[in-house]
Amino acid sequence: MARFQPDAVLVIGLGRFGSALAGTLVGLGHQVLGVDTDRKIVQEMSSQLTHVVEADTTSEEALRQIGAGDFNRAVVAIGSDVEASILTTSLLVDFGIAQIWAKAVSRAHGRILDRVGAHRVVYPEHDMGERVAHMVTGRMVDYVELSDNYALVETRPPADIVGKPLGQTGIRSRHGVTVVCIKHVGADFDYAHPDTVVKADDLIVVLGPIQKAVRFAQTRN
Ligand code: ADP
């Protein structure tokens, strides 16, 4: 098996999520070993990833043969076959991989992945659904959930903060959010200052607890 650099990532399951993730990692300059049981998928991905292997990762022996234990980071992107996802994750835990990310298709699936020792469980479909829901309502342009219930929200400003310096709008006390940066039409994003004056057609990025940040982007006044 090819020797991989310490920041190489093992991606297991090259479905829609796994293949997009693996391709992006390669684009970011990481070596990626992609693994899938499906020969056709393995062939399709072979030109895009550093190395691709056809293997069933529910087999400890198969994982040993591909050198899974040499990786510091692995992503289990098997979703529809929940049993295979859980078995694979638990074997990677036994191999002592330092950072195991696993995709869950339901809360119950996620809880089990957590129990067997995945370090991070992600819910791509649920999270994207939530994100799009926030964007199709109100003035929100983009939404990124951070840890500890915080979110960054890109939005058009509500009328009550337009036309006066941010420091005089009382935005933190009234809305519970902070304006992090601002983009005037035709200009790049710039950091917001207390004396920055927001115009109605500006884009702003605010940071705050999720509920407050979302409510702020839905304020109509
Ligand atoms: P998505 O919704 O992202 O397309 P899927 O769960 O449908 O995700 O796809 C997961 C991929 O994982 C599929 O390409 C499938 O062939 C692969 N896969 C499923 N079971 C195993 C396994 N035991 N070992 C390796 N790959 C697997």
From TrEMBL:
Domain RCK C-terminal span(s) in chain numbering? 138-221
For this protein, the record's InterPro entries field holds:
NAD(P)-bd_dom_sf (IPR036291), RCK_C (IPR006037), RCK_C_sf (IPR036721), RCK_N (IPR003148), Trk_Ktr_HKT_K-transport (IPR050721)
The RCK N-terminal domain covers 6-123
SUPFAM superfamilies, alphabetically?
A: NAD(P)-binding Rossmann-fold domains (SSF51735), TrkA C-terminal domain-like (SSF116726)
Going by the entry's taxonomy, the superkingdom of the source organism is recorded as: Bacteria
- Protein name as it appears in the record: Potassium transporter
| Source organism (scientific name) | Protofrankia coriariae
